[in-house]
Design a protein that fits this description.
Length: 200
């Protein structure tokens, strides 16, 4: 039977993550597997990979065939590099100490690349956030200036309207006062009215 190192899909729709499993090539993608050796989450940036390094290396040395995606994951984590160096030791190209030194050097280079990528991502996110904040600040300033202008116009209109309103009220009130002054003495007479009928 052909043993493969492949991905088994987990998670829900549009939020998938994967288990890295060793399985018979005839079994279904999400079916029975021999051993789970890690997990892979492509949603995060950079992708989150957890891998049992020794078990993955052991299965590769025993002839397990990785799929294309799993090959990329194993290469990223250094499993294929370690396998290559161990094969060089078996052939006598160099000793085990040299293989360990080369592997450690490769790991340091890979980690520096990963750290630089994370730093660039954080910097780009900060720059994008700064741009968004500056754009939002400009929009808020424009809105505030527009609001101040509108309030000033409304205040000017209200002042002009108040003057006109006061003048109109004064014009309407002045004839009314004259009429009340003329009518007032007639209505307020308190003398008794004489009775013209003769007394019997």
């Amino acid at each position: 039977m052909a043993v493969k190192i492949r991905l088994a899909r987990k998670g829900r729709k549009k939020l998938a993550f994967y288990h890295i499993v060793v399985a018979d090539s005839r079994s279904p993608r999400d079916g029975r597997y021999i051993e789970k050796i890690g997990s892979y989450n492509p949603i995060t940036n950079p992708a989150t990979i957890e891998l049992d390094f020794d078990r993955a290396l052991g299965w590769l040395q025993n002839g397990a065939l990785p799929t294309d995606t799993c090959r990329a994951i194993l290469s990223y984590k250094g499993v294929l590099m370690k396998k290559h160096l161990l094969e060089g030791v078996k052939k006598g190209a160099f000793d085990e100490a040299e293989a360990t030194r080369r592997f450690d050097e490769w790991i340091k280079q890979n980690e520096s690349k990963i750290e630089s990528k994370k730093a660039n991502l954080e910097k780009s996110q900060d720059d994008e956030l700064g741009k968004r904040l500056s754009v939002e600040k400009k929009v808020n300033e424009a809105r505030a200036a527009k609001l101040v202008k509108r309030n000033a116009d409304l205040a000017a209109k209200a002042a002009a309207g108040d003057k006109a309103l006061v003048e109109a009220i004064n014009e309407e009130a002045s004839p009314a006062e004259e009429t009340t002054e003329e009518i007032a003495p007639e209505e307020t007479s308190s003398e008794p009215v004489a009775d013209d009928k003769p007394q019997e």
